Every structure is written in C-alpha cells, then in structure tokens.
Amino acid sequence: MSKPIPSHAQVVIIGGGIHGCSVAYHLAKEGWKDIVLLERKQLTCGTTWHAAGLVGQLQGSHATTAFAKYGVELLEEIEAQTGQNPGYRRSGSISVAINDERLAELKRKADFASLFGIEASYLSTPEIAERWPLMNPEGVLGGIYMPSDGSANPIDLTNALAKGTRMHGAQIFEHVKVEAVEVEGGRVRAVQTEQGRITADVVVNCGGMWARELGRQNGVGVPLHACEHYYLVTEPIADLPSDLPVLRSYCDGTYWKEDAGKLLFGFAHFHPKAWGMDGIPESFCFDSLPFVEEDVMDVLELAMNRVPVLQDVGIRTFFNGPESYSHDGRFTLGEAPDVKGYYILAGVNSTGIQSGSGAGRALAQWIMRGHPPMDLSEMDPKRCEEFQTRDPYLRERCAETLVLTYAMHWPGRQRESVRNLRRTPFYHAMKARGACYAEVQGWERPGWFAPKGVAPQYDYSFGRPSWFPHAQAEQKAAREAVALFDYSMLGKLMVEGKDAEAFLQRVCTNDMALPVGRVAYTLMLNERGGIESDVTVARHAKDAFMVMSSISSTRRDYLHLRDALRPGEEVRLRDATAAYGVLSIAGPKSRDLLAAVADTDVSNAAFPFNSLQHFHIGHAPVFAQRLSYTGELGWEVFVTPDFAEHVFDVLMEAGQSFGLRLAGGEALNALRIEKGFLHWGHDMAYSDAPHQMGLGFACKPNKGTTFVGRDAYLDRKAANEGPFLCFIKLADPAPMLHHNEPVVRNGSVAGYVTAGAWSNAQGAAVGLCLLYPPTELSGRQALMDGQYSVLVEGRKISAEISLAPFYDPANARMLA
C-alpha cells in the first residue's frame, strides 16, 4: 500500500524532473525537512528522461553560466553523497566554426569563460581533426576546446538528486497529480491533488511543459511552449573512441557525442514545430512523438557531410521528444508577481541537464532567504506582459527560440516572429522616412534610419554592420546639431492621490517633495540596499506624479510600486504609457528648434533643467520636461495621440533650418554610454548598491522620510565594497565593444563590460564596466592604479579607465 500524502508541508514542489528534484534536494540539504515533491506519473517521465545529457558550462549569461558551473561541481561530488552514479563523463567539448563571424563568436565565448575561471582555448583545424578524427575538416576554420565539459545521464542525475532529497528527510510522491493550487488573499494556501489536499506555505511550479497551464489556473504567466526536438542514435561503430569530446558545429546545426559505442547526434531546427497546441495527453509518460524525416532532412545532410561515417552506418534510434522553450530564450525563475509564495522554475530552452542543478539551488536559496541570491533579473516572471503568456504568441515566439539556439548570437539580434504588435503614434511617419525597427516588449522602436536608396533592414556583425555609418551620422547630429528620437514606448506610470507624495518619499531615494513642474531622477531600493529600479519622477499637480520607466521595466516598476502600497494609503496607480506620444529633442540646437515652434520661453532661466511646462506646438497642446539621456541639451515633448503627427510634422519642417535628423535606439545607446548614463538590467540590478554605481547623488538619507533600504544603503556605502562602475575606452579604434568583454588589469581579469558601443565623438569603442578593486578594502579610487586592456576575440586591446564619463563630465552641455 502506498504511503499517504501529508496534510501539510512547508514547501510543495510540483514536478519530478531535474528542476523539481534539484529544488527539493537543495532545500532539504539546507535543513528544510518539511518538503513534499509531487510527480503526476514517474520521476523524469516528461522531458528530463530523453534529454541528450550534454553538460556545457559556458552559457549565454552570468547567471546561467554560474548555474552550469555549479552543475559540474555537483556532478563530481553527488555520487559520494548519495551512492548514486549520475553517469557523468568529463570528455570535454569542441565547438567549430566554418565562417569568420562564427569564429569571432566562439572567440568571444572563450573570452567570456575567463570571467568564471573556466578553461577555454582556441584550436586550429588540424588540432581539432586530431581530437575528433571522424570529422570532415573541410571548411572548418578553427574552434574552441573546453576540457571541463562533458555529459551526464539525465535519469541517473535526477535519481541521485531524488535520493539525496530523501536522505535529507524530504518526501517524494509519484503518481500524484496536482489538480489545483489554492490561492487566498493573494497568497498560496494549499494544493489539491487526486489523493487529497496539502496546505502549504510555498508552492513551486516545476511542471515543465505543463507549467504554463498549471500557472494559468491562478493567473500566473509562464511564457513557454513545448516544441518538437529531434536526435538520432547510430548503430554501434567499430573502434569508436570512447573519449571523444562532445562536438558542436553550430553552422551545421548539429552536435555529436559518443554514446556506448554509438554516436548520438542532435539538431538545431530550421523548421520548428510547436507541439501540444490542444493540450498534452493525460497519458503522456516516457512518450515520444512521430519522427518526420522532412523536418530534419536539411540538417541531416549537413551532419552527414561533417561526419561522413554517418553515410555508412545505420540509425538505431530516430527520436522526437517535446521540450519547452521560452519566448525570449531566458528561463522563468522566481516568485510570481501576483501570488505570494508561488515560485516558478521552467522554460529552460533545452539546457535543463547542464543548468538544472544550479537553477534549482538558486531558487531554493531564494525561497529560504526571501530574496534572490544573485542577479536573476533576466529570468524574473515580472518581465512578461500579459500578451506574452498567451498561447497564440508563444506558439510562434517559442518556436523561433528553438531555431535561434544554434544560430549566430549577434549583438542586437532582432526577433522576426509576432511583430508589429505595439506601435507608437509616430510609427507610420517615421517608417515613411526610413525607420528600421527593433522590438522591445512588443513595441516597435526605431533602431536606425535608412537614407534614400538604402533598405531599412537589420543585418548583423561583431564588427561594423552595413547600417553602421547611418547610426554614426545620427550620433553626430545629436552632438553637433539636433536629433529627434521616439520615446513614446517608455513607461509612464501615474501615482495619484492625497498620499502620493508621502508614498513616493518612502519608496524613492531622492526627495519627492518637489514643487509642481519639477522633475527628479531617483532610485528605488530594496531592504538590502540594492537598486530595484531607476526612474524619473515629474510632479504634475499637488496630488499627481508621473514615474517614467525604461521600456523593459515598465511592468516590473508598476508591480514594485503596487506591492509597496500600505493599507489605508490613498494612492492610485495608473499605467498611462499609451496615453502619450513622446518625442525627445536632443542636441546643441534643440533650444533653437523648440523656440521656433513653441509658444513659451525656452531659455535656460525660464525653462531650467529638471523642469516641466505646458505649452503649444503648432495647434497642439503639449507638455515637455527638460531632461537628457544623451548628455546634450534637450527636451522630452509629450503629446496625445490625436495631435501626435501634427507635432511631428511641425518639428520636422522647422528642423530643416537646424540640421534636424531622425535618430534611433542604436545611436541613443552609444550616446548614453559615452556620457555614462546607466540602464537597469544591463549595467545594474537589484544586487547592486548606489555607491557601486556612482549614484549616491540620487540618495537623500536625511530628507526627513526613511526610504526603503536606507539603512542598508548607508551600511553598504560605509563598507565600500565593489565591484564599481567605471568608464572604459579602447586605444585601438578598430575593435568593437558590445557586452560581457573581460577587462584585464595587470594581466588578471578584474571585471567586464556591461554595455559597449562605438562612439563617433570619441573615435573608438567605449563602454561601461564593473571592476573589482585590487583588494577588498581599497575602494573605487584604487581602480586607477594599473594597466588595463579588454579581451576582444582573444586579443588584449589596450584601454583607458576613467572614474568620470569621457563625454562632458561636468554636464555643461545638457545644463546650458
């Protein structure tokens, strides 16, 4: 007779794959004994069992690489802890390139590995052929070898985690289906199963491809969809070396590993298929899907060319199994925004075996500590808009994620599916003038503008793409004349009511006792003194403020403000993002342009920096705030959608006399980087403190109201620990900086570039970077001691470090 389920648990985990077992194992290992894991059928029976089991440490971000690095550490020790062999083989891996751009990408990945102490080295084609004699070396330009990579047995690893979970006192129940998660007062209360009800303080959704439907029952968005995923296993191959490294040929869309005397080879798909559109069959357990040769024939031909022995050996296993992919290629990991105590770990894009152990540990630490153990903002469930969790969107977007898995990971690569969802009032007018659109959170945003005769279409490069000179001309216009940017998609959150000022004083670091018509830049901190967001706040009336957020943080900022409200506070929150079009006018001639069209005095005395005024442009009522994200003199003009094109036309006509040029996000990013302006989620996150980012000027600890995180901020400021944000410029004008390039001081890695771009004004690539000082107690000033360089595609490029921005550090231009 099976053991009955308990009536209560501190934590109930739903799903018995690699993720659920990892969360349970790490909670139990830390002493949380009252843990229950529920699996609808058998452990691993959904997706985990048929994973290829590749273990590659180097992933696409700091967090996922940290997950994978820990995963290898656990693989090396878990058998000693549990007696269960996880089937780990440290065979190494080789990734090959058959074109120059892929080789550049691989070299950048090897550079990135140095940030984590992961060994990665360049191999020539003959060296690769020596280690992988079955490979056809034709067209291979070289590759990267990582000796600490390998493979594991997915079922054995998961069973080892499950065994460890039980050894530490937690319980696992198979053949128990969760029918519902009960929520009361915005908090989880229990799970209802076929065998009874379990009350719980915390519920963790590790339901794999079922996680989306499970979450939807409680209004919890889990942006993933199952897609078909193929691999093949050959018949035994005579004299096949058992120590073959895993081989990846991204350009061929294929990977290979030795598998008990056979070759297992899998595919990145050129023609992906979403699966389970009508729901997943109730009977699904260790199941596979029909194998359709036409779906993989083009990749199979590439595979047989790269490894010719496949042309002569039979295929023993044709396998097609569903795996979950997310809409943006990132995990969903963290607490649900609308249900306290409801946590999610799902949508890991076919990296569950290599990342599952680390991701499970991170979520367990989050549950135990009450906050993330590291910067996991890229995975935050709060990042998703409602439309991004609906099936029609996910079927297309998640399938594209599968296609892009082995595609080039270009800087700034744009998605092609599910586009043109959200358009600003200036969309058509700007498109008619050559706008090439990028997409953020469904918003179409001009990336750059094509001159006549040039197609407004993105192409990509780690060097200089074809549109590079057009974006440079836009930078030049902003620095020397005047440029016009569409800011309409930036978040506009209204905070209104009798207690609005007192509320903002509590959640914001700057002084929010602003006069009507004034604007302030401020941070919002958490209780640990970390930066939850940076925003501008404008006071529109005694009881009305507008909080302006970045595009990708609008929903997150709204939820942060909502969750900070106290019972009885008379405060109303309202998202007014779509209520206004916004045009940013930036450049030394912006005052001349605005004066030519506005019925108000725009002199510095009458319209100072950080102020707000209402007036008319042409026949349209507008209001504008004098702010700058470019470092130039400038204004942000707000207009209702009905008058938007009229205002645009007036500005464009008048701007001809002042050299006005339309500009996009590519130019804006370079301008803000050389001016030293930060972007939350790229250059800082909730793990970083203001003193590290040079943002102490926005913190007013003596303003009379104790803001959230004040004491922790002061403690962290006094401790003065790094890393610290600095500014960097390459001595050589040829290389490009994008993101995550390691910064080397006196021969040792000291930090990395958080954001980079090529600056027209500086004549070189510039960046923001996070650097650790030589010793823990030496502080930010000590960073100036030493010789610096940046690793760019395996080369050390000499660099200059500065504690002040390279462009106009005294702010004379934007305050003029």
TrEMBL record:
Q: Does the keyword Oxidoreductase apply?
A: yes
Q: Which InterPro entries match?
A: FAD-dep_OxRdtase, FAD/NAD-bd_sf, FAO_M, GcvT/YgfZ/DmdA, GcvT/YgfZ_C, GcvT_C, GCVT_N, TrmE/GcvT-like
> In the UniProt record, does the keyword Oxidoreductase occur?
yes
Specify the domain of life of the species encoding this protein.
Bacteria
Residues of the GCVT N-terminal domain: 426-703
Q: Where is the Aminomethyltransferase C-terminal domain?
A: 725-808
The alphabetized UniProt keywords are: Oxidoreductase
Where the record annotates domain FAD dependent oxidoreductase central, the positions are 370-423
Residue ranges of the FAD dependent oxidoreductase domain?
11-366
Which family does the UniProt entry place this protein in?
Belongs to the GcvT family.
- PANTHER family, sorted: AMINOMETHYLTRANSFERASE, PYRUVATE DEHYDROGENASE PHOSPHATASE REGULATORY SUBUNIT, MITOCHONDRIAL-LIKE
What is the official name of this protein in its record? FAD-dependent oxidoreductase
